[in-house]
Amino acid sequence: MVIDLSSFYNVPRQMDRFFDEIWKPSMISQRRNAYPPVNISEDVSNIYVHLEMPGVQIEDVDITLSDGSLVIKGNRKHDTGNYYRQERPAGLFQRVINLNVPVDAEKVKAKMKDGILDIVVPKAEEAKPKKVSIEAE
């Protein structure tokens, strides 16, 4: 009589794989939370926000600046057709970017070209670094 214990010895590996799958966030939730992808950078004078939104029309995007936050809302319309796989998200989206510095709201500019939305948010004068002069005594 032969007793096969191979499945018993694989239990630790199977348990590890099971817990890895439970704790791994799903790709769908990651895509939904990260749409549209955004890059944020700054220099002394401005904050630069770049969003990738292929297939989104300008009239379907709304940008609002309020209470130290930049809110970008939009709608990427669903494409028609029968798909075997569709990875580009569609539907309503919203990204909220906390600016954390005073900004000059009157000078904010936004441009959209080839599915890339570029927003330039000028910092207010009080947020810019000031050079302090040293007096000799």
Description:
- The protein has 137 residues and is α+β, with helices and mostly antiparallel strands.
- Helix content is 18%, strand content 34%.
- It is built from 3 helices and 7 strands, in the order H-H-H-E-E-E-E-E-E-E.
- Strands 1-2-7-6 form a 4-stranded antiparallel β-sheet, with no helix packed on it.
- Strand 6 (109-113) and strand 7 (116-122) form a beta hairpin.
- The model is unreliable at 27-32 (pLDDT under 50).
Features:
137 residues; alpha+beta; four-stranded antiparallel sheet; three-stranded antiparallel sheet; 3 helices; 7 strands; 34% strand
Q: Main sheet, how many strands, which sense, barrel? A: 4 strands, antiparallel
**What's the total helix number?**
3
Instruction: Give the percentage of residues in beta strands.
Output: 25-35%
Estimate the global geometry from the Cα principal axes.
flat
Taking Cα atoms only, what radius of gyration do you get, to the nearest Å? Answer: 25 Å
Which bin fits the share of residues in helices? 10-25%
Number of strands: 7
Strand ordering within the main sheet: 1-2-7-6
Poorly predicted regions are 27-32
Structural class: alpha+beta
Calculate the mean pLDDT score and round it: 83
Order of helices and strands: HHHEEEEEEE
Distance between the termini: 101 Å
